Amino acid sequence: MQITDLTPQKNNPKRVNLFIDGKFALGLDLDTVVRAGLRVGQILTDEEWQKISEEVTKTSLYNNALNFLSFRPRSEKEVKDHLLIKTAQKHKKESKISKISQSVLEEIIAKLKKMGLIDDEKFCLWWIEQRQNFRPGGKRLLKLELLKKGVRHELVNQVLDSLAFDSREKENCLKLAEKWQLKHKACLSVLEDKQRIFRYLAGRGCQ
């Protein structure tokens, strides 16, 4: 494999497009170019290319993860899934870039955990608070949502127990029932009213 061109990117002067054997391979930052000593005409071995490609992938995905986490807290699974999707998209776009390895993915996740940017317990607390403030529901629905986010079953139960959520659930469900009745009070008979309320509460996770 021979480097045939290193072209500055139009919209980002700190990055360049690297061409291998006359074809675009990937974009990388100038620091990586300098550290690796890359130059036009250079012949790369498979081992050298693999090292460069993996480093570029790791840096790109780490920055992508930081951006993903900047909008709101995320579970560990959400971040992993996001990075895998981004890698698949990048692999299609840049023909020579390596697919992310499990070790690289775990390295990125471990770094984010160490920085406190990924913490499933804190994520659970944030998710429950958001639901209670903006879309209250029962314990069953909360557990289902958190499990879908990839949080361990044991941790979900632990957090809900620490919040004494069982004692709050009845109050939440009563408020939901009252709100539903006010909205539909003129539309249904007493029997229909009860049946519809029960179905509504069940759908919101009230037990």
Share in helix: 55-70%
Which sequence of strands runs across the widest sheet? 1-2-3
Strand segment count: 3
Order of helices and strands: EEEHHHHHHHHH
Determine the structural class based on helices, strands and strand pairing. Answer: mainly alpha
CATH superfamily of the largest domain: Winged helix-like DNA-binding domain superfamily/Winged helix DNA-binding domain
Our measurement of the CA-to-CA distance between the termini, rounded to an integer number of angstroms, reads: 63 Å
Oligomer: single chain
Profile the largest sheet.
3 strands, antiparallel
> How many helical stretches?
9
Specify the CATH architecture of the largest domain.
Orthogonal Bundle
Descriptive labels:
207 residues; mainly alpha; Arc Repressor Mutant, subunit A; 2 domains; three-stranded antiparallel beta sheet; 63% helix; 9% strand
Tell me about this structure.
The protein has 207 residues and is mainly α. The chain folds into two domains: 3-114, Arc Repressor Mutant, subunit A; 120-203, no CATH class. Helices cover 63% and strands 9% of the residues. It has nine helices and three strands. The chain has helices spanning 30-36, 46-69, 76-93, 102-114, 120-134, 139-148, 153-162, 165-184, 190-203; strands at residues 3-8, 15-20, 23-29. A three-stranded antiparallel sheet has the order 1-2-3. It starts with a strand and ends with a helix. 20% of the residues are buried. The model is unreliable at 94-98 (pLDDT under 50).
